[in-house]
């Protein structure tokens, strides 16, 4: 009996200590092998009791993809084991995901109907800077992979957004790129809102850079990405297989220059946190809300509070993780001169006056979270 009591006391102590492990944003975060987690610009998928963290493997001296998408697994969200490379870059010359390409912000969602794990990411072809502006799609049979690369392309060629009715289409028809060679003028800004770049890229498909995926309560999934030269976000519905677009999409904050979208829903309201566009340098987070994924989207002040809140604590949003009925804001502190040393920001989202708040904490733990 005493032995049993001792064992259960030990068990309780062990589970409590797992829960108590502190989260220290900005510091090194070792995996179970003692190596700093290498999964940047990432996102997390939960399957059963296990969380899978997918992200960009970052090399020491280049931000190009030399390895691919990594996967880590955890039951407690603090102890992560390295599951290896989920999607590997290719050594085949000319491959769209050739080693040395730019492969960023991978996200994975599970399709309950097909039983497949669907990975989407931002892809730039090797040697072409950021000009390709494509999304890539890969598929796997197991959460940790391996994932098979399927294709990459620009988004929704030959399709205007759902909100473009007869009136909007008539206006787009009048827009002539030749009249708007100079950027940032008042008339250029107006033309961007009216769809100048949508029209420019109508035939080839819309640009697709920084991105996230979101699966709604009704099972529908969405690809949210920076488009139109990073000026405008697009929310594109996915087809039931989660491996293609359905062809329906909407624009958010046309001309607002938003990157790094991360989204969650609470009590029927969609909240999206984004960043401005300043390369690897941090800037002030933005926040939007909407009663429907299709909008209308309203902008709010930054949700960040605390030291360096005006530069998102030196980070840039990547994902918002639901844990029980609460949410974790995840961001990256980039280190472009030593990319593998990039750090993570994880902070709980609280609600004040009905709005999300991301308050800096040097250290916190999941104690107050119900992880079910
Ligand atoms: C900001 C983006 O959010 C990052 O993912 C990356 O593409 C950098 N720009 C590159 O400068």
TrEMBL record:
Does the record's keyword annotation contain Hydrolase? yes
Question: Which superkingdom heads the taxonomic lineage of this protein's source?
Answer: Bacteria
Instruction: State the family it belongs to.
Output: Belongs to the glycosyl hydrolase 43 family.
Q: What is this protein called?
A: Glycosyl hydrolases family 43
Q: Which GO terms describe its biological process?
A: carbohydrate metabolic process
What are the record keywords, sorted?
Answer: Glycosidase, Hydrolase, Signal
The family database entries (Pfam families) matched by this protein are listed as: Glyco_hydro_43
SUPFAM superfamilies, from UniProt?
Arabinanase/levansucrase/invertase
